[in-house]
Amino acid sequence: MPKLTDILTKFPFADGRKYPRLIRREEYSSALYPPDNAFTSDNTFTIVSTDTFMLGIYELGPGGAFDPLDIHPGDEFYYILQGPIVQRSGNGQFAYLETGDGLFMPQEAWHKAHNFSDQKVRVLYFITPKAWGEDIPPAYIPTDAETKFYKGPNNDKLPDMRSVIQNVSRQGCTDDIGSWPVDGKEARAYPQAVYTVRDCDKLNNIHGTKHPMLMRFIGSNDYGHFGEFILPPGGYGPRCSEEDCHGGDAAIFCIDGPITINLTQMQESFQLRPEDSFFLPAGTPYQLVNFESQPVKAVFAVTAL
Ligand SMILES: [Fe+2]
Prior knowledge:
Strand order of the largest sheet: 1-19-16-21-14-13-12
Domain Cupin type-2: 57-125, 228-300
Low-confidence stretches: none
CATH class of the largest domain: Mainly Beta
Strand content: 35-45%
Pfam families: Cupin_2
Protein name: Cupin domain-containing protein
Mean pLDDT: 96
Bound molecules: fe (ii) ion
Shape: globular
Largest sheet: 7 strands, antiparallel
CATH superfamily of the largest domain: Jelly Rolls
Radius of gyration: 19 Å
Number of helices: 2
């Protein structure tokens, strides 16, 4: 397998030319990260890394954590494939995330994950627009002592987050698309807070009216949109979503399938098995098709709707 740093912004498109492409789970590029010390690494699988976003999976064994803290020059969103996982932020938030929950971490928010369970945990992450700066790893990384935690030695020098963390308990609506769970720009201002989006708190909407598909946002802002599609079974012929076409690059990750992606203008279709992905360059019309007898579910990662 190539080094993670060698494939950044060019996976699976080595020459940078992007086209609609099925990426089977066997094709994901695996690596330890960080690569220099397996004792503190997560097991990471890159699905897509282009000039517009990064999509991947990381795994932590029972009792494990990755070290050091992580940071990105873009927003990061999580979908927990297998929890529970505890995500610690540099400013002293500890999010307990169960399978199916989501997390929004604005740009420049330091973070680190722990697995306190008796099984491997797995996280699908989406970072946009940029996953890494010029320095990999970053030139400055805070030590544990420079973060906030129970009886931390520097707690009094670090920001009090109680007035920073926004109350996100209001019921969501269509007008929240583009600023869910909070406004992206405001969330990126120092000191950054992170936001858990539990399965029951995802922003629900309906994609299409004649052939409705459930659309559930974990996050939606000026950098990207991340959430899940649920397409029920049944119809005259297979159940199909209505055609959509995004202004920015996107990827679809199959949770429950198989799901067929039909490229409506190109008359080409692809079948995604669970954990396969599909890359959709900006401006590619597509629909999802369900030939199964139960709902199918896919995560969407879209840079501009
Ligand atoms: Fe990260």
